[in-house]
Amino acid sequence: GVQCPGWKKDEAGGEKPALVPLPFALNARFYTERRLLNRDVQISIEGADKSNLVFGSLTDAAAPTYIGEDLLRSGLAKTVGWSIEFSDRAPQLRLAEKAARDGRLGVWANYVAPANASVSSTESFTGKVIEIVTGDILSILPIAAGSAPPRRICLASVRAPRFGRGGAGDEPGAYDARENLRRKVIGRKVKVQVNYVRPPPADSKLPPAVHATVTRELVGKDDEDIAIGLISGGLVHVVRHRNDEERAENYEEYLELEKAAVEAKKGIHGNLEKFARRVNDLTAYDSKKRAKDMLDFFTRSGSIRGIIEHMSNGSRFKIFLPKESALIQLALKGARAPGSSRQGIAGSAPQPGEPFGDEALAFARENFLQREVEITVSSIDRAGAYLGNAYLVEGGKRSVDISKSLLEAGLATMHGSFYADSEPGGPALLEAMEGAKRAKKGLWATYVEPKIDAAPTAAAVAASREIRGKVVSINYGGQFSIHKEKGPSIDDIDAALAALSLDKSDAGRGIPLSSYKIGERVLVKSSGAWYRGKILAKNAPDNSLAVKFIDYGGEDTIPLTSCRRTPTGPAASTAPLAVDLALAGITMPVFGEDSCDYAAHLLGELISGKTVAGVISREADGVVYCEGANVAGVDVAKAMIRAGVARVARRKDAEARRAKEKYGEEEEAARGKHMGMWKYGDTYASDEDETEEVKARNAKRYG
């Protein structure tokens, strides 16, 4: 582990060059001769290199100290990284060398630290662990620093296997190292003792990397260095530092523990095949069908345990289910957090979020990220995300309702389609939101209760629910879009789009797919004309966007080259002109079902381009459900049921009961004649159109 300066051949010495001593070589030899020459010594053989050169130690019983340490402390030698591992005195040798280097003695007289050398630090603080990035990198929120942001801390002198990027696979043991650390410290208070700070490369914009020893408190025991458990289990490597590099305060113990783990073939030092993982990723763009196919399994499974791996915003998570080995996306059914801001990608400008979106995400990260949760799934949305509830698991039992926590903090609102009176736990969520509203928390800080006017007359109520407009598009499932008679003109929108000269302008071109956000308004070109649209989904393989036309209804997939960001002006500020309507209380074939095209064709023949009038029953997911929809006095729902392409909804709510009373006889007549969907008789269950949650409840109650 010790090497003194030697001799080299004189470059100007001709055919038989003389040996010339390197600086301090004679000093080192004189020092060694004075200490050991012609004296009795004890030799300990500790190893050999590949050339069979023996390495060991010489001990002079009459000397108070070991000569290797004295040479290093005097600056007459340097340590040798690979052979120092053979020595039992490795810690003392490194300390002796550091003392000489700091004092610029001997061979260190002209030493200048490299530009990228790590800098020693004595900083310390206490914080709460909010994220485990990898097995050796943690995100820690300082406790005594007020509103200071989380700090990324690297464990000193260790390196964990890395997760793959850009489609590359993970290094063996990456997940296991992170999971080991997560179970120990996530959400807990730790002490951080910074050992050194490593500056980033000159051409990098990254902040300096802070390397520290992190300890956690144990009841009735001394604080535990969390790196020790990782090293003992063979889950990380110990870094071999250069002679002049700073290192962890327990570095020598790390080396001994790693040596024992290697000998025992633990973890990454043994068979790597045991780290193989196969995960069914149901969050990718091309996995929507698989996610939908799994819906029935998840709804019937009841409560499922998982770990929150990632957060898109305060109420939308990616959750890993260990038992099912699946990664799913879950959106909270009872609460919606505002969208958070997003970093600019590939030179594009950052995208601002909704008010309190970043605060909601920070709250969720601090309290829920990488925590064990228990979830229930009730349905799935268009983007392939499951809708349901999530609860923290503490002590093996369900504890905190995440939706309720967000609502209590004033960082979320209840979904418009969430009916608190009919949902389990709904009243508690409503009370949580009302409490935040009264306390003026978060989103409700500037909220003012609307004034309650005198009760309107029955005629005024009926008039306020009436809707009338011209049909501009026909969709599946009995849905269609209209332009309301009283509202902005489509001519104004066309004029605003024409004024932008999108075909001649380069504004908005070249924006990468990753910078677009689902739900964002965009301008798209279809069939040679420009339209306003809203992004429904992103298709990375085809580099395209699934878009809904907000002024005409209907959906289409648009290449990214035919998409533009919406600039400020009338095109951005004017509300969508198309209102999506659906026939309330009845069901028609949706896309992919038998006779869906024929049903849409009949509906289009009856109402396309004509004025439809009706009464609003309810609104859900952006669709207005209309009762009594008629064209010049012709009841649209009755005509569809009479043709056998529609039926009364099999539900037990008031809307379905009214439809049963109004159209029941027409349905019986169509069924008797085996019209359309009744060709093979009645194959529909009594709760055919109920939500999956209601079906599961009925199955449990009635078998």
Strand content: 25-35%
Shape: elongated
Helix percentage: 25-40%
Count of separate DSSP helical elements: 18
Mean of residue pLDDT values: 85
Secondary-structure-based class equals alpha+beta
Main pleated sheet: 5 strands, mixed, barrel
Strand order of the largest sheet: 8-9-10-13-12
What would you report as the Rg, rounded to the nearest angstrom? Answer: 36 Å
Uncertain parts: none
Number of strands: 35
What gap, in angstroms, lies between the N and C termini? 75 Å
Describe the structure.
This protein is α+β, with helices and mostly antiparallel strands and 703 residues long. The chain is 25% helix and 28% strand. The protein contains 18 helices and 35 strands. The strands form 9 sheets. Strands 8-9-10-13-12 form a 5-stranded mixed barrel. A 5-stranded mixed β-barrel has the order 17-18-19-21-20. The model has no long low-confidence stretch (mean pLDDT 85).
Secondary structure layout:
Elements: E1 2-3, E2 7-9, E3 19-21, H1 25-36, E4 42-48, E5 54-59, H2 67-73, E6 78-79, H3 90-103, E7 119-120, E8 124-134, E9 137-142, E10 151-155, E11 158-159, H4 174-185, E12 189-198, E13 209-216, E14 224-225, H5 226-232, E15 237-238, H6 251-263, E16 280-281, H7 288-293, H8 295-301, E17 304-313, E18 316-321, E19 326-332, H9 357-367, E20 372-380, E21 386-394, E22 397-401, H10 402-408, H11 426-438, H12 458-464, E23 466-474, E24 479-484, H13 490-499, E25 521-526, E26 529-539, E27 544-549, E28 555-559, E29 563-565, H14 570-573, E30 578-583, E31 586-587, H15 596-607, E32 611-620, E33 623-631, E34 634-635, H16 636-642, E35 647-648, H17 654-672, H18 692-702
Parallel strand pairs: 10-13, 16-19, 19-21, 30-33
Antiparallel strand pairs: 1-6, 2-3, 4-5, 7-12, 8-9, 8-12, 9-10, 11-15, 12-13, 13-14, 17-18, 17-20, 18-19, 20-21, 21-22, 23-24, 23-32, 24-30, 25-26, 25-29, 26-27, 27-28, 31-35, 32-33, 33-34
Helix pairs in contact: 2-3, 5-6, 10-11, 16-17
